[in-house]
Structures are given as C-alpha cells and as structure tokens.
Design goal:
heterodimer, A: 191 residues, mainly beta, 4-stranded antiparallel beta sheet, globular, B: 334 residues, alpha+beta, Four Helix Bundle (Hemerythrin (Met), subunit A), 2 domains, 7-stranded antiparallel beta sheet, 10 helices, 7 strands, BtrH_N (chain B), BtrH N-terminal domain-containing protein (chain B)
Chain lengths: 191, 334
C-alpha cells in the first residue's frame, strides 16, 4: 500500500505563474512573463491526483505560486520514502541534481530532469503530463490554441533512513509547483 | 500568377529558434536532412558581434546559414532592398524562379504570431509561394504556434518594413532594430558530404580541434568559452546591457549544442555505434546546462547578488559538463 505525504512549499514560493483572467501585476512564469491561465487548472489549494500520486495544488502565497529553483532547502514530513514526486516545468528542458537530507545528518544526491513548459514541445524525459492549458497568457493578452504544459517528475530516494529535507538545484530554469513524498513498500521489497 | 513551392515541411528542434527552424525548412526543400546538416558543427566563437535579432548567430553575419553548416556546401547571402516595393519584387522573383527564401519580419504585424499587435520583435521565417490574385504570401514558421499557409501581402510587407520599435517599457532582447526588408538567399551546392561513419568521425575531430586549438580570438574554443562566461557575468553586475548580450548569444549556442546531441544520437542509431549514443547524451547534458545558465543570466537583474552567484555556479557546472563531453569526444574521434 503506497503511503504519501504532501509537502508544503508555500513559504518557498518565489514566482507567480498561474494567472487568473483579467489580472495584471507581478505575474511571469518565464523570463518573457508568460503564464498559465489559472481558470483552466485545479482550484488553488485543492488536492489533485496525477498519475496516481496526490499533490497539493498551489494556492497563491505572498511570494507567488511556485518555486523557481535556487537551491532552496525544502523540509518534508520526516519518514522513510522511496520516491519524491514533483509537479514542475522548465524554461527549456534541463536537468540537475537534488540533495537529499536524512535525519542522521547524512546526504545523498539524485537527478531531477524536467521538460519544457513551452507549447508544442513534448516531454523529453518520459514524464507524465500533469496539466496542459488550452491557452497561454502574455503580459497584455491571452493567446488561444497555444498550450503550455506542467509535467510530473519522479526522483528516487535510494538511501536508507529518515528523509527530512530536499535541497532543490540552483537552476532557475526549473519551476516546482508541488512535491509529494511517497513510500512504496512493494518497490522497496523489490530492491 | 500563383506559385506554391513543394515540398515545404514542418521541422523544429525543441532547443532551437527561428534561425534553425527556417534553415531546416529550406534545407528540407532541397532534400537535405536538417539534423545531418545543422547538427554536425559544435564549437564556440563569439567575435562580439551581437545583434538584437532572434536569428542572430555569432560570427556569421555574411553567410548566416553557412555559419550553421560549415561542413556542407551551404551558403547564404543577405539582400538589403532599398524599400518595401523592391523587397517584395526581389522575394517574389526568387520564389517565382523556384527558390524559397528566408525573410526577416517583425512579429507585431504577423497575424499568426502571439506578438501580433502587441510586441515588436525581429524574427525569421520562410517564404514558399504567393498568389497575386488574392494578394497573399505563403509562409512557413515552425516556431510555436507553428504556422504554414497564406497571409495577406499587406501584413507581410508591414512586417518586413517595420522599424521594430520598443513599444512597452521593457520589450526584451529583440526590439529597436529595424527590419529593413532584408531577405536571405540560400545557395545549396550540388555535392554534399554523405552521412557516413567516416564523415562523422571527421566532423568530431574537427569540432574537437575547434575547441582545443590555440587561437588569437579572445572568445573562441574551450578556453574562449571560459573567458566569455567569466567576463560577461562580471559585467552583468554594473551593465544591464550585458544581460541582454549574454541572453542573445547563449540562445544559438544552446541550439547548436542540442542539435549536435541529436546528430550524435542519429549517428549512433545509423551506424550502431554505442559510443556515439553515449557521447550524444553527454552533449545533451551540456545543452541542459546551457538552458540553465541562460535563465540564470536572464534573471540576474531581479535576483541581485544571489543571481550573479547562481550564474557563476551555472557557468562552472556547464564547463565541467563540457569537459566531460570533450573527453569522450576525443575517444570517439579516434
């Protein structure tokens, strides 16, 4: 039986990429200030399931609605896990290393590979599609039939022990909307 | 008179932009595989010639498309007509004569671009036909949202004749550079090198030599790449224009790196050579570092000292990945 814990990212939000209609202000997922139409995505703060994994879909916080990766240390509910699942999208596909922090002070690393959010661009790393909106917002208009994507990533937790935190890469091309840590006993027995 | 040249097919590599996509469309018309031609060269050279064009390519002002394909008999030549009428007469004559061409255009006037009636920018696309009766021009532009089909000649002309002005407080990177009705004539030689295992090995050797040979150019090869990154990231602290420069220069370097990875993967499949597959993956990792560095640089302005630190970290990561790829390339080129 899979066990999962939703991770609260709200205090790390530093980018605003989910934009309700008719709004302006400090929005801008990428360097061109494009955004996802918020009305086509799950309600803020709701729990959504993507490819069998539950996630806390972000609610706007003071800093935004997603984390532009700059080496933030994200605390997770302490526990023994097998996978870190993410909802994320990159400004051009990219890959990097996350650092896993365990309760005994030891660390490990694992690769995080993230596909491009840009419309008409397929996943590069075999990630399941989490969400694709029908349109994309620009600073002064919304362009229909121009569909950006959010993908689901998965990072293995291979070390033993209690995972307590994850340090994201210092890679500002990567954006993370949600993280869920998962214990999967069946997979564990297999290894 | 109506002309519609064929075949004109969609081609795009996901790390490329309008320069490579337009080149790919034109090469496809001439029966060439864009990955085999555009993916062969991998190097670094920046002579300080940055221009505010989406289709900028370092060091290739004279033969833009030739600069993308130095191992092939490909040349291109810019034409700079006196005005919009002459610009259309020249392009129409080339297409009527059976040759699709590339034209510079301001997206602000192109109805299918998201920037239409919003943002000015200096873009490149292919022209493959026209219809005098309906007053339309056939254009191909694989950059998302991809478009292939007719647009009004009036819109096409306005896009080519635009002054490309800055309209909003901060239109990034590719504005304030008049389009000038410029168009690009492509010359494809009758004889092209065959895509063979020997040719790929030759290409790898030449690319490696380009990275490692001593050079009088400040920003050429592996050592020049290191110097460029160090210099431009240093300048970013005091000169906002350095951010634009770095972002514009890094774009084509990212595209070329990604395309070379694709080229190596293609060669690995074609010649059943596992070393080329593995080398392709290492070069793809370099492309992923370029993607990260480009955004790190572009966001320096808002991130302050942390942004510059991030850019330095990204540059170091990129150079390490680069050296891993070059080491493997030296083995594969033997």
């Amino acid at each position: 039986m899979m066990r999962s814990a939703l991770v609260d990212l709200s205090t790390h939000h530093d980018n605003r990429g989910l934009q309700p209609p008719g709004t302006d202000g400090d929005y801008g997922f990428n360097v061109w200030r494009n955004t996802f139409p918020a009305e086509e995505l799950p309600p803020p703060g709701s729990t959504v399931t993507v490819a069998g994994v539950p996630f806390a879909f972000p609610a706007p916080a003071a800093g935004g609605d997603n984390v532009r990766c700059r080496g933030q240390r994200i605390a997770v509910p302490a526990g023994s896990y097998d996978w870190i699942y993410l909802l994320g999208a990159a400004e051009r596909r990219t890959e990097d290393v996350v650092t896993l922090h365990y309760a005994d002070g030891s660390t490990g690393t694992a690769h995080l590979r993230m596909s491009d959010f840009w419309p008409q661009t397929p996943d590069r790393f075999g990630e399941p599609l989490a969400f694709r909106t029908s349109a994309m917002r620009y600073p002064r208009h919304t362009h229909a039939d121009h569909a950006p994507s959010i993908w689901q990533q998965r990072v293995p937790v291979t070390g033993p022990g209690e995972l307590v935190a994850v340090r994201l890469p210092d890679n500002p091309g990567m954006h993370v909307f949600a993280i869920t840590v998962v214990a999967d006993p069946e997979a564990r027995h297999a290894r | 008179m109506r002309v519609e040249l064929a075949p004109i097919t969609y081609w795009r590599h996901d790390l490329s932009h309008c320069l490579h996509t337009t080149a790919g469309v034109l090469l496809g018309f001439h029966g060439l595989d864009p990955v085999e031609v555009l993916g062969a060269a991998w190097g670094f050279y920046y002579p300080g010639d940055v221009r505010r064009e989406e289709y900028y390519f370092p060091g290739a002002a004279e033969s833009l498309l030739g600069g993308l394909a130095p191992y092939h008999a490909i040349r291109s030549r810019w034409h700079t007509p006196a005005d919009a009428d002459e610009g259309w007469r020249q392009v129409r004559a080339m297409v009527a004569g059976g040759a699709p061409v590339a034209v510079a255009a301001d997206n602000f006037h192109l109805p299918f671009r998201p920037a239409y009636r919003d943002v000015h920018t200096n873009h490149l696309l292919a022209v493959y036909g026209f219809d005098d009766r309906t007053g339309e021009v056939l254009v191909a532009d694989p950059v998302p949202p991809a478009f292939q089909g007719p647009i009004p000649l009036a819109a096409f002309t306005a896009a080519r004749d635009s002054q490309n002005p800055v309209r909003h407080s901060r239109d990034l990177f590719f504005t304030a550079n008049p389009i000038g009705n410029r168009w690009l004539e492509l010359d494809v030689g009758a004889e092209q090198p065959a895509f063979t295992a020997d040719f790929v090995r030759y290409v790898l050797g030449e690319n490696l030599r380009g990275f490692t040979a001593p050079s009088d150019d400040t920003y050429r090869g592996r050592s020049g790449l290191s110097r460029f990154l160090d210099d431009v990231i240093t300048r970013i602290a005091d000169d906002p224009a350095a951010v634009d420069e770095a972002f514009v220069v890094l774009g084509p370097v990212l595209a070329v790196t990604g395309l070379h990875a694709e080229y190596l993967a293609l060669a690995g499949r074609r010649f059943d050579d596992r070393r080329l597959y593995e080398l392709g993956r290492l070069v793809d990792a370099v492309a992923h570092d370029w993607a990260a560095l480009r955004i790190a640089v572009a966001t320096c302005g808002t991130a302050g000292a942390a942004g510059r630190k991030s850019a330095r970290h990204r540059a170091a990561s990129l150079l390490a990945a680069h050296d891993r790829a070059l080491s493997a390339m030296a083995d594969a080129a033997r």
